[in-house]
């Protein structure tokens, strides 16, 4: 199983950060490739993309000002397979990526991703009051996994805050 490439460049509008690649993503080399993952649908319904993209088009998000990375590189079947050591290493790598590439907003795709990154236990949805890297907004959104029990419209409503926040930053 291979790690998948980040899609990242300087000065992105939004850098989306997941836990780690799924087995399907590791097999295909594309982010959010599991057919049950709702990431691509959520981006479209939230007004972040003009159409529903497919995992094979993940690199195309760069043209829209969006990037993709994970806190841990190793593909797993479930996030609970990630070790404390992998999170600790991934946290430091991610902080360096964010500081180097300076996206306007870092959107953590899952509350647990942000908890692992920030070390904070209490996390609310949306814009965080204090970011981890100065000058870069931290935003927490629900995981796009099909296992999430929230209705897709509830998830979309949270992601729909991102375009509004972007307008205030430009």
Could you list some keywords that capture this structure?
alpha/beta; 7 helices; 13% strand; globular; Uracil-DNA_glycosylase-like; DNA damage; DNA repair; EC 3.2.2.28
Based on the coordinates given, report the CATH architecture: 3-Layer(aba) Sandwich
Strand proportion, as a percent range, falls in 5-15%
Low-confidence stretches: none
Helical residue percent?
Answer: 25-40%
Tell me the number of helical segments per DSSP (H or I, 4 or more residues long): 7
Give the SSE order as H and E letters: EHHHEHEHEEHH
Shape: globular
Instruction: Please give the domain count.
Output: 1
The CATH homologous superfamily? Uracil-DNA glycosylase-like domain
Instruction: Give the C-level CATH assignment.
Output: Alpha Beta
Spatial gap, N to C terminus: 40 Å
Structural class: alpha/beta
Number of strands: 5
Mean pLDDT: 95
Strand order of the largest sheet: 2-1-3-5-4
Oligomer state equals single chain
Work out the radius of gyration. Answer: 14 Å
CATH topology: Uracil-DNA Glycosylase, subunit E
**Biggest sheet, in brief?**
5 strands, mixed
Please give the structural blueprint.
Layout: E1 14-18, H1 23-28, H2 39-45, H3 61-64, E2 66-70, H4 84-101, E3 105-109, H5 111-118, E4 126-127, E5 137-141, H6 152-159, H7 161-169
Parallel strand pairs: 1-2, 1-3, 3-5
Antiparallel strand pairs: 4-5
Domain Uracil-DNA glycosylase-like: 5-152
InterPro entries: MUG/TDG, Uracil-DNA_glycosylase-like, Uracil-DNA_glycosylase-like_sf
Keywords: DNA damage, DNA repair, Glycosidase, Hydrolase
